[in-house]
Amino acid sequence: MYTSGCFDIFHYGHLNILIKSKELCDYLIVGVSTDELIEKEKGTRPVIPFHERIKVVQSIGFVDEVIAQEDKDKQKIVDTYKIDAISVGDDWRGRYPKVSCAMEYFPYTENVSSTILKDALKLNSKKT
């Protein structure tokens, strides 16, 4: 199974989707978005640099493999890593790129997100 994310300011919602994903598979691959991809997609650099975010995800004992997510081409990941299923939060339902494998949607963990944390810490500002 594959799941991916920015994992900027890692929080319980991130952990929750990783736990639920691992419960459904024998081998869990996690893609961590590069700084460049985040800046391209969101218009701002992450608070935590890529090399630190990837180490955080690699340190989680039940995550089997961590890869850099350099673009949004999910089918390329499916083909390269022979992925049987992808897991994402249900906030992606109807918006996730089409792929040839099974999709698992998990309920979004309420009241926690990197955006909420950045807003609370006054870290959410776009570059001009």
Structural notes for this entry:
This protein has five helices and five strands; from the N terminus they run E-H-E-H-H-E-H-E-E-H. It is an alpha/beta fold and 128 residues long. The chain has a single domain (2-120), classed as Rossmann fold. The strands form two sheets. Strands 1-2-3 form a three-stranded parallel sheet. The protein is globular.
User: CATH topology, which one?
Assistant: Rossmann fold
Give the second-level CATH assignment, the architecture: 3-Layer(aba) Sandwich
Class by SSE composition: alpha/beta
Name the CATH homologous superfamily.
Answer: HUPs
State the strand order across the main sheet: 1-2-3
The percentage of residues in β strands lies in 15-25%
Helix content: 25-40%
Number of strands: 5
Tell me the major beta sheet.
3 strands, parallel
| Rg, alpha carbons | 14 Å
How would you sum up the global shape? globular
Mean pLDDT: 89
Q: What's the total helix number?
A: 5
The helix/strand order is EHEHHEHEEH
Task: Give me some keywords for this one.
single chain; 128 residues; alpha/beta; Rossmann fold; 3-stranded parallel β-sheet; two-stranded parallel ribbon; 5 helices; 5 strands; 34% helix; Cyt_trans-like; nucleotidyltransferase activity; Archaeal_FAD_synthase
